[in-house]
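Pectinesterase inhibitor domain-containing protein: structure, please.
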Amino acid sequence: MYIYAPFSTKFSEKKEKMKHSLVLIYASISLLFFHSSLSCQLIHQTCKRIADNDPNVSYNFCVMSLESNPMSANASLEELGVISIELALSNATYINWYISNKLLQDKGFDPYAEACLKDCQELYSDAIPKLKNVVDDFKDKDYYKANIELSAAMEASATCEDGYKERKGEVSPLAKEDNIFFQLCAIALAFTNMLH
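Here you go.
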């Protein structure tokens, strides 16, 4: 019986290369999961710290908000800060649209409620460019300036709600939206304070 040696050697070499390739693939996947796990831990630890230091921020809301962005899975603390600001910016843009839509579609507002909605729309319209500046400030590591502009943008929600409270019995149709925006800004503000 004759066995052709080069074939058996080539087969063994291919088999060995496949083993090495599988080991590399397994190691890469393990490293990816490990890194994602560390990022997930970073989100949970950071949100716990934020919620512990700010009674206006819910831990679960913080985690769900940050994890809603797929980029957060591999993000550093600084990158999570940018993500949090972008979430607040996106939310302010949505609220501004929501108010415009409400004013166009619902004609049943009394003059006071309509004036409040228009004031809120102006507040959120002003918050949007401030938040865009905050993203740039944050990326430039100018956390002091980011903190000031973010604090100013954050006032939109409180000032909006205060307008409705000035008249007894007036109920804000934006209470939920204002609360979400406030929490998103508080989370972003916490990142600027951590990195400052």
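Notes: The chain has one domain: 17-195.
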